[in-house]
Amino acid sequence: xxxxxxxxxxxxxxxxxxxxxxxxxxxxxxxxxxxxxxxxxxxxxxxxxxxxxxxxxxxxxxxxxxxxxxxxxxxxxx
Length: 78
Prior knowledge:
- The protein is an all-beta fold.
- It has no helices and 4 strands.
- The relative contact order is 0.26.
């Protein structure tokens, strides 16, 4: 919504990290919505940001929370 997303769950992993369904780095965004990741090695990295919030009043009868997830894939050079 054009505002910083503080307190969001952030996870990262490089392609080839074992096991395939795990993340090798996790942190949380600060109140300003910013976070830092220090890649352990070069390669293709996937960063996932997940936000969970209470649903609006109209939707609360159907579900309690809304969960929003976005990913970014980038290459880290040596």
